[in-house]
Specification:
Pfam families: DUF218. It is a single chain. The chain is of the alpha/beta class. It has one domain: Rossmann fold, CATH 3.40.50. About 50% of the residues lie in helices and about 15% in strands. The chain is built from six helices and five strands. Strands 3-2-1-4-5 form a five-stranded parallel β-sheet, with helices on both faces. The longest helix is centred in the N-terminal third of the chain and has 32 residues. It is elongated.
């Protein structure tokens, strides 16, 4: 009888643990895929994180709406490969990248080169650029699954006002699954392993 009672308690404990795990995963996915999305009227700068056609185009659209005259783009490894004449071109034929310091119709392009090549590195590089230009507000542009973490990183390190705008890439279900697990791991790294603005 005692042994049977212990087995019942063990099963209940396992079910409780599984329930907590499932609930935690569900909450994490909700946070990742339901970021805060703002409609900024104006800001000192627009920051496009990393490179993808959808992010870059969204940043240009926000600038065209008159939100800011400064578009900051990240010189990530991918961008440097795109600009390398010796690199085999395996990128979309319509892909292009702003020239640093050039004035376009709706904005002036500014470039940052993150070290390390991570979201935290991009945030740190932007903060340094913002200090030079006395910027007090920024619109962060990235894809939906990345936006919550990007805003948390920026708000932790940038003393000004932070807005978020999401791009909506056309992706496969495999990419969606990958982004879900990638962001969960990145959250743990950012907030447990590296809980400060220090990126090295």
């Amino acid at each position: 009888m005692v042994k049977r009672g212990r087995m019942r308690l063990w099963r209940i404990a396992v079910l409780i643990c599984v329930g907590i795990l499932v609930a935690s995963l569900g909450l994490a996915q909700w946070v990742i895929w339901n970021p805060r999305i703002d409609r900024p009227g104006s800001a000192d700068a627009i920051l496009v994180l990393a490179y993808s056609d959808d992010r870059q185009q969204k940043g240009r659209e926000v600038a065209a709406e008159g939100v800011s005259e400064n578009l900051v783009v990240s010189q990530s490894r991918l961008v440097r490969r795109m600009q390398d004449p010796n690199e085999p071109k395996k990128f979309p034929s319509g892909a292009w990248f702003e020239e640093c310091g050039k004035e376009y119709q709706d904005y002036t392009a500014h470039c940052i080169e993150p070290h390390p090549n991570t979201t935290a590195g991009e945030v740190a590089a932007f903060v340094e650029l913002a200090k030079k230009h006395d910027w007090d507000s920024v619109v962060v542009v990235t894809e939906r699954s990345h936006l919550t973490r990007a805003l948390l990183d920026m708000e932790r390190c940038f003393p000004g006002t932070v807005y978020g705008v999401a791009s909506e890439p056309h992706t496969s279900w495999q990419h969606t699954v990958y982004r879900s697990f990638y962001e969960m791991g990145a959250f743990l790294k950012d907030w447990i392993v590296s809980p400060t603005c220090e990126v090295y």
